[in-house]
Amino acid sequence: MRRSMTPELPDDPEPEQVDAWVELAELAMDDGFRGLLRRLVEEEAAEAGAGWPCPGLAAVVREVAGPAVAAGIDPGSAAAAGVVEAVIDRYAGLVGGGSGFALECLPERLRALADPRRERYLELLAIVNGWSAPESWAPVVDWLELAARRSATGGSAVGGSAVEGSCAGSSAAGRGGW
User: Fold this and answer.
1) SS3 of 2, please?
2) Mind listing the pLDDT tens digit for each residue in 144-155?
3) In this structure, are residues 27 and 117 in contact, taking their beta carbons and an 8 Å threshold?
4) Which of 77, 112, 114, 164 has a 20 to 30 A CA-CA distance from 32?
């Protein structure tokens, strides 16, 4: 069963749950944080298209790059280049563009998923709801970004021709990149 993203404070909360609840309220008042979450939801919905629900970028990254990080694969290795290509190919399928288009959009999407405020929200949500602590996205995103940069500078076949349009409804097109 899929977990709700809604905090539910128990009737008789522990002190750390109350503290987390208060911090969640403060975080929810941050306009930038609310905008980040809104953008993430919109991008996930755009990636899913008519096939909602389907695995989004977060699931792809966990499934494809997570094991490489856990195995200690060097981000500059040929194996890492293969992981980067697999993530880009899967993401290209989600956003409906070519691999060049996905390569353009992916860095900003990954940074949003690893935003410290989003991670803190998930940590606080787990405390309030009595769930186990979530894993941080930062190590996987950092590894994937480094592996992608090294693949790109090493002459790997990562990428392709870009397509016109916006990155899954975001404003990442034409900016950033690896």
Assistant:
1) coil
2) 989 988 887 764
3) yes
4) 164
